[in-house]
Amino acid sequence: MGKNIKRIGVLTSGGDAPGMNAALRAVVRACKYYQIESIGIRQGYEGLINNDMIELGPRSVKNIINQGGTILKTARSTEFRTPEGRKKAYEHLQKNNLDALVVIGGDGSFTGANIFHKEYNVPFIGIPGTIDNDIFGTDFTIGYDTALNTVVEAVDKLRDTATSHDRVFFVEVMGRDAGFIALNSGIASGAQDILIPEQRDSVEDLCDSLERSEESGKKSSIVIIAEGEQLGGVYEIAKQVKARHQEYDIRVTVLGHIQRGGSPTCHDRVLASRLGIAAVEGLLEGKTNLMAGIRSNKIVFTPIDEAIIKHNEIDTELIKVANILAI
Amino acid sequence: MGKNIKRIGVLTSGGDAPGMNAALRAVVRACKYYQIESIGIRQGYEGLINNDMIELGPRSVKNIINQGGTILKTARSTEFRTPEGRKKAYEHLQKNNLDALVVIGGDGSFTGANIFHKEYNVPFIGIPGTIDNDIFGTDFTIGYDTALNTVVEAVDKLRDTATSHDRVFFVEVMGRDAGFIALNSGIASGAQDILIPEQRDSVEDLCDSLERSEESGKKSSIVIIAEGEQLGGVYEIAKQVKARHQEYDIRVTVLGHIQRGGSPTCHDRVLASRLGIAAVEGLLEGKTNLMAGIRSNKIVFTPIDEAIIKHNEIDTELIKVANILAI
Amino acid sequence: MGKNIKRIGVLTSGGDAPGMNAALRAVVRACKYYQIESIGIRQGYEGLINNDMIELGPRSVKNIINQGGTILKTARSTEFRTPEGRKKAYEHLQKNNLDALVVIGGDGSFTGANIFHKEYNVPFIGIPGTIDNDIFGTDFTIGYDTALNTVVEAVDKLRDTATSHDRVFFVEVMGRDAGFIALNSGIASGAQDILIPEQRDSVEDLCDSLERSEESGKKSSIVIIAEGEQLGGVYEIAKQVKARHQEYDIRVTVLGHIQRGGSPTCHDRVLASRLGIAAVEGLLEGKTNLMAGIRSNKIVFTPIDEAIIKHNEIDTELIKVANILAI
Amino acid sequence: MGKNIKRIGVLTSGGDAPGMNAALRAVVRACKYYQIESIGIRQGYEGLINNDMIELGPRSVKNIINQGGTILKTARSTEFRTPEGRKKAYEHLQKNNLDALVVIGGDGSFTGANIFHKEYNVPFIGIPGTIDNDIFGTDFTIGYDTALNTVVEAVDKLRDTATSHDRVFFVEVMGRDAGFIALNSGIASGAQDILIPEQRDSVEDLCDSLERSEESGKKSSIVIIAEGEQLGGVYEIAKQVKARHQEYDIRVTVLGHIQRGGSPTCHDRVLASRLGIAAVEGLLEGKTNLMAGIRSNKIVFTPIDEAIIKHNEIDTELIKVANILAI
Fold first, then answer.
1. Closest chain A residue by Cα to residue B12
2. Do residues A191 and B100 touch, judged by C-beta distance below 8 A?
3. pTM, 2 dp
């Protein structure tokens, strides 16, 4: 089946992530290497629906490996969630002679491709592009390493002020459903406590931790809080801690969208390059409905249903590491 | 009078700013160079009141030129605002044989030193250390250039997402009374509009600007808003714009405290080094009640009253530059 | 005369510098603002000679303000130094209806424009784009501030190793004729000694400085050496110091071309934006044979002959600052 | 046996690497957590020989997780290679009541510890701290990820100039025996060719690659060359390529020691933290003569002999990735 693939469409979908351009570049160059054609679809599935596509060659993707965001643009398409939208998409896919799709995005984007495949039998392979690292079937998603470093660099700056003023900083980082960013950036930035969605925390425990910190001689602290944590949000948590410890000089910072952008790290560029090539090779070997990922530093393909339904779990060793270091 | 100065106390006060350590290092080494002693006072005026001081030599300040924050720590002392507080401060100053003070901070810190001088005749020279650049008597304050670059790097990351998603980002930057950070970082990050405290703006004008932007073919925009702007805050502004343009995909980001930290830029390190030396030399020449600053790249001393009362004005050329570039 | 200007050609010439794109963007947008046309000339004067030009509008220069290098590319044209080359250039200039030129580059580029003007009476204004800061008529050249920060960040990394191993690092930085980069980056990176072309130095003096450093308790040192210094180059200097002090653990690093690239700093972006607009406004006011620059933070125009012949001098205050800090 | 461990000595040895401080911090805090004492040994094995040690507690290692280099300093001790040196070391070890050692360094440092163990039966665990990633028994060494990003950021800057001037840059990166840095940074920086010690290359092949690049429309190229490559060094290679292609505008850059320094990335900080804790836990469980490493994201212990003798091999998939992307 893969033998008949002569022309691949590639799109980026969902929230943008640093390294999407590197993945796109790899898809396009792998197509050239295997002597097939590659077409860029703009704005995610919207570009299929609106027939907004562009022929891509090796030179069209030059000097983008170091750029954040995605030159194809991305969108969350509501129309593609309707049968009518997908019908239009299929018509344009046929019109453009696309034999298969590479979908760079998160689980929402994969779900769309999966439904599309069931209805129209379009082969596709997904590439995990999201900063949250919450997709099953890969040790790392594209953009995650860059986001971690963005957070850590930001908290390094906050620590200057925290230390100079003997303050407690509560820092909200991204991660609606997953604590990977919070846990790893928290360890790396020397956080006193880290609140993540996967763990039941309480303001009491947090206060205990801050009190221990004070007793051990610390004059300032950083607390990292994932946006998906369950205690009511960073401002509410700060308020409750302040109610118990009015002597604390507390500041809240929400890092926000800066975590999604920026030039990708080396790790994200290499990961994206490998997965982009793997996706093309997979399609040419007749694979479909899979996600290309990395496990133990090897390329692996995971059934897309698994990638969507299952979730990576937080490593309990890391939670222990965080606790030991906060001593 | 300056001839009798044998021992100088140095403190950092008010909000921390990148480059304060570089200024401190310069003060200490200049003291050594001119064969006098230097004493570091911890936590701003609190350290005078609480007799929290440390003898400093050239090696005590090694490898701090590149560090944000202040190794002396800083604080806003409420006690120093009382006659009793200043009395205690003076007693410890005498006890430690301090002949003069170098005060690294903003106008609040200078006001304190000024009152202290009137009461106890303690010679002092101020060094402008604040990211806001709103102190009269110097073209640049220490920390301002670093803050600008922190903002610009952050907005560069946001632009990746803005462009990838065709979004409008409203970004709040520091500047309660002054628009220097907003105006310069706005120009440097290609902002479509910039709202500053010094200018009367309106949501209508902002919407006009965004509409012009759209008509000219722009799909995404950045709007930089100083925290001291007069329209009710970034969230309120975003709400009002959204009310008129529901089709806009708007996101708000408050950069917050990351703007205060970080390793100082080359410019801030050199500026801080020059002002630190100038302050010591000034005291040795018998100067007092002055602020050391830079004008047209030359060291100048400004009467501290002027430095406190007057304010640098926004350059109207820059406002025009911002308008032309937003075309 | 300026009234007749309807179409301006803009080129970047000589060595590339961060901020050239920001200047280009400002030229193009200022042209639009003043309702005239702008044409980009590729590869410096080569593009005039080879008729390699492109119509530019406000959207052609989007998202380049943060990019190093120059999207127009640059070259050192040998053909433009010949009467025949300039004749071809003039023919293509006429063919493209260009009424004036904006030349972004260094003194070599300005010299070319000057000769071209004498022969063909083509109005032009120069914009100083070079990292070396050695052009008379402006306090800062475009790219200089970025280069300084690149050097300082690199030396901050070297200092980690120098300190960890008790080593002496000799670091060569750019500056064939001028010591601005060396002197300022040297102060900002805490150098023990700084060798620049403008000063007569000797290996004896350098050794004295390193010996004093050792006596004062320093275990590691950084020495910054401008490439144009007069003692025979960084490797030779290292060899001679080693001959006298075999106990020193010396390492040499030549920073090289990384100093020319990178995303421009806020300062360079604002400077480039201001000068780009000023150049267009100058031409429209009938000005020619001038360089737009910044003095005391105001736009000034300097006769191009002066800009070429004269040179900014090293501020002796800075040399003293460097000496005091090395105590 | 591990039960009797009450006091652990920790040292950093060999070339410094970013993340060594994070590892040290983790060792010290893990000791506190498990209620034993930790002693820092300065200058690697030299500190044992010269009895240069310091008691460390949780607060002694505050705010170092983000610092490059090593606060304990490091050295390559020649005296420790002699029986006499090791005898002195053992005497001081006994005098300080050290029950075990944690050695943060490379294979040379592990060899020393191994011999020392054979002679004096001192339990130890090694932690791989070197930017080269060439130590068997771990997927990543501490400092490697930071070095990769330093290289990639530097080459990003060079690419600005390469593209603006249509140049070919030959960039030498670290890696005397191993091509990990070259291969991964080469992929991430979009290199046209990558020369590594593990592969037999030739100037012919390199020229072929550059010619193909030109034919495919590329006007500029980056070639990454590991210092341990077999063709005679970057300058010699550049000379030979120039001899065949005089039309190429070639520049050589040797990145040098900047690759060893800098604030560690998030990845290196987390890795170092995990390995530091693992080493202490290992010793407490009675383990010795092992290296703590990470494989497939799990802590593993490898016999130190294996870690010294065996070497990680370059992944052939990555070589293929590099080739495909250079199309």
1. A164
2. no
3. 0.97
